[in-house]
Design goal:
alpha/beta, Aminopeptidase
């Protein structure tokens, strides 16, 4: 359902495939991966079998040699080449930073240091990535798969023509792995906690700040590649595109639906958090990660319905269906179903999945004999209101102080659709 390839020991192994360029192409899935430390892999385990099944031919380890000596490297195997390119030259201890340090400006400055200190290693990493192809997939990684890995990923994605909001979003997806990465650190440090509250976190402000610093100093990422790395950015971009991009598909598998069960609750939390990160990268102040936990979704399954949509076996989206919604609509007769948390998997769901989910929800309401579908959206999100209006919903009112259970009431627009 998401970019994270599931492993037991690895928490931040992701496929960069599926991101789209402005000209309608996409990064070919299964060719370019980013990860936390592959030193956590152990031969003979299911994790090791899964890793080998990806057909990876090159592993680029961005850590210091002393990190590799202390924490291990990817197990040697004849199926791939291993190279250590330590792009960071000035070590710093994030865990020991004082709690008041703001991750945004602090890490953005550190990333700029890395970009200027590690020019030789970054150049070689980019050139090796440009040689990757469907016949020779590649993975690059550091310790947590966040900072050094995130910086290199941002350079690659920019050179491929991926828009900046998506690059920022890709960086923030480490947030989904942050609790597990923190637990690993605590396990290595006798159960202690880092003093820095930003440890393991990947807020959008970090990557946004780093890209802005590169632009201030070099004019653009391409300017950095040409001026600092001594590589013709246009030629490098063309080679990356030739090997890593493909035309976006024009046909898509049909959606299938199933009603969610309690064991799907964590899956739904992850989907919602992924959508929240997509929003934050685009300055849409609506959802935040971790606002809804598994208990929320299990409650919604008990009191209403939760549905999952799949495309070719992969999760494409989900929605909740309620039978009452007094927080937004007040006391009402039982004449409607209330659609909530309409979610599609960012970048990976087939086009028009959201509209298909709406139609499916409306069919469920109709099946109960109720005449109306109702929903609400933030009054500060006119784009979403327009989307629902284009699907046949009519604005019927405003609720200026909806209490969504998060401790801070907010204004919503109420929309309704008469069902056949």
């Amino acid at each position: 359902m998401d970019r994270h390839v599931p492993f037991e020991a690895l928490h931040n192994f992701r496929d960069l495939g599926g991101y789209r360029t402005a000209d309608g192409r996409r990064i070919r899935p299964g060719v370019l991966y980013r990860s936390d430390s592959l030193g956590k892999l152990t031969p003979g385990t299911p994790d090791w079998s899964r890793f080998l099944s990806l057909g990876i031919r090159t592993v680029i380890d961005l850590r210091y040699p002393w990190e590799i000596d202390h924490q291990g490297r990817a197990p040697a195997d004849d199926s791939y080449d291993y190279i250590n390119l330590s792009i960071e030259h000035r070590p710093y201890n994030q865990a020991a930073l004082p709690p008041e340090v703001d991750p945004g400006p602090y890490l953005a400055e550190r990333y700029l240091q890395v970009a200027e200190d590690g020019k030789k290693e970054i150049r070689e990493a980019l050139e090796r990535i440009a040689d990757a192809s469907s016949a020779a997939p590649l993975v690059f990684h550091c310790a947590s798969g966040k900072d050094r890995t995130g910086e290199l990923a941002a350079l690659v994605l920019t050179l491929l023509g991926i828009d900046e909001r998506t690059i920022i979003e890709d960086f923030t997806l480490t947030e989904l792995a942050a609790p597990a990465l923190l637990a690993d650190w605590q396990a290595r440090n006798n159960g202690q906690s880092p003093t820095w509250l930003g440890f393991g976190r990947a807020p959008a402000s970090v990557m946004r700040g780093f890209l802005n610093l590169l632009k201030e100093r070099y004019g653009s990422v391409e300017g950095y590649v040409t001026q600092a790395l001594g590589v013709d950015a246009q030629s490098l971009s063309a080679k990356l595109a030739a090997n890593l991009l493909e035309p976006a598909p024009t046909t898509h598998p049909p959606l299938t639906y199933r009603r969610a069960a309690p064991q799907d609750a964590e899956l739904l939390v992850r989907l919602r958090d992924s959508v929240a990160l997509w929003m934050l990268a685009r300055d849409i102040d609506q959802w935040k990660p971790s606002e809804k936990d598994a208990t929320h979704f299990r409650t919604r399954m008990t009191e209403g319905e939760v549905w999952l949509a799949y495309a070719d076996g992969h999760l494409a989206g989900a929605y909740e269906l309620w039978w009452t919604d007094e927080a937004a609509w007040g006391p009402r007769p039982a004449d409607a179903g209330y659609i909530h948390r309409l979610m599609t998997t960012p970048h990976l769901a087939p086009p028009n999945t959201g509209r298909a989910l709406l139609t499916h929800a409306e069919s469920r309401i109709t099946a109960t004999g109720l005449p109306h579908a109702r929903l609400d959206c933030l009054s500060t999100n006119p784009r979403l209101r327009t989307y629902y209006e284009s699907a046949g919903y009519t604005v019927v009112g405003e609720q200026p102080a909806k209490d969504g259970g998060l401790g801070s009431p907010y204004a919503v627009t109420l929309l309704e659709k008469r069902l056949p």
